[in-house]
Amino acid sequence: MAYDADVIVIGAGLAGLAATAELVDAGRRVILVDQEPEQSLGGQAHWSFGGLFFVDSPEQRRLRIKDSHALALQDWMGTAAFDRPEDHWPRKWAEAYVDFAAGEKRSWLHGQGVRFFPVVGWAERGGYDAQGHGNSVPRFHITWGTGPGLLAPFVRRVREGVARGLVQLKFRHRVSGLGRSAGAVDTVTGEVLEDSSVERGKASNREVTGSFEFRAQAVIVTSGGIGGNHDLVRANWPQRLGSPPEKMISGVPAHVDGRMLGIAEGAGARLINRDRMWHYTEGIENWHPIWDKHGIRILPGPSSLWLDARGDRLPVPLFPGFDTLGTLEHIMGTGYDYTWFVLNQRIIGKEFTLSGSEQNPDLTGKSVRGVIDRARSEVPGPVKAFMDHGADFVVEKDLGALVRGMNALTKEPLIDEAALRRTLAARDREIANPFTKDLQVTAIRGARKFLGDRLIRAAAPHRILDPKAGPLVAVRLNILTRKTLGGLETDLSSRVLTEGGRPLEGVYAAGEAAGFGGGGVHGYRSLEGTFLGGCLFSGRAAGRAAAAAVR
């Protein structure tokens, strides 16, 4: 029986590159197909901040962070809250991933030349009890070089495979079907799209110029999730989070459309946990967009006052950086799909980091001088650009003008100046009170006990209304689509399973298409820094398993 390759990999993002790299190491012949042009090689990972979840790393130990496998597993399970029969494989993947994060993950990447920023971030702090949601300690490690820096060794390994004649890169090939011979899926069909020279992330054309059919002994699906397809996001929106937002902005390009998930399901794959998804509540419209509805996430420190659309403070523990989906659930219960940060220039300069490789040119460009200049600047350049040009930003010297600006950005003038002044004055009084009952003030003080937060993430406690810390800033926050937490159900060998629980012969899946492992390794929530790592871990597993299975 004639085959065009040993394995066909569908999707040239990080998971697809990791799988292909492993296949190359095993000497297997691979066809890597993707509907986008070559300039989009690496997919969403290119745009990422490069955050990775490690457990008991050298970076943590240098900062006197005491972490352990047992603590990380407790945090993961408390966050995931697995509670469904179909969580069998996701739970197994979660256990395996924590083993990986506490074991060889860092040394494996370090051996390929990946390096890490020395200050560890503390994302998703939870704020509930010890066994509930959140990271008990800081675990968010930033790749030196951000997303492009993490992609680099895998792109290199795949291109070496091309040079050796083991890999064929087939860009502008859109898959539309999976076919079988003798019971196993071994055929991939689809359309060849017209060449496109658009820059990375821009929408490419969908003009069809031909068709293709490739055959191989195994197929690995690494096509990503649904975050760029707002209709599909709304169709799968979980009831527990209320009605889907009227307005959403996109943290991923439009080609992240979920198309391949439906095709795999049509071929017999089981798609589970469709209603589990991860969207951010601190989204701002990109003033210089690359794709349609392009949004950027603010990675906030703990000091901004978080208000709902009517100007009321969000309840405890929904402080900046504590519980993403808990905050989303609360917001969707207010009847509005936006909220506000109110702060001042001193806080925004210290505490605002913008997610994305393009928003962090110092880290992406591996510039030590740039990082030092950022730390010394009153407001980092990328943040200052949003203050000057961002559609969601209001910057004013006095509160009255700030409130007028806030109300001008919304359909209804819901913010009352007198009420907001009382709220700010009450908060500011607690700053001078060592016995405060304001738990956000307690959280700020707690954050500053960690050296990393004190250095670059948490401003010294001060009054928001202090004129010396001004001007005042208000930021309208939108719902930002991002990750699909459910996906194709897979066993620990990344083999895709059917409704009956048996492997769909010849088919593997990895990355977001597989819920980062098992069809939903995160359960209901993420600990952050686990999406890129999930692509690497599941992509590596799929590549190794497929390499061992083919003859």
UniProtKB/TrEMBL annotation:
Q: Which UniProt keywords apply?
A: Flavoprotein, Oxidoreductase
> InterPro entries from the entry?
FAD-dep_OxRdtase_2_FAD-bd, FAD/NAD-bd_sf, KsdD_DH, Succ_DH/fumarate_Rdtase_cat_sf
Q: Which domain of life is it from?
A: Bacteria
Instruction: Give the NCBIfam families listed for this entry.
Output: PRK12834.1
**Record flagged with keyword Flavoprotein:** yes
- Annotated ranges, domain FAD-dependent oxidoreductase 2 FAD-binding: 6-532
Q: Name one Pfam family in it.
A: FAD_binding_2
The molecule here is called Fumarate/succinate/L-aspartate dehydrogenase
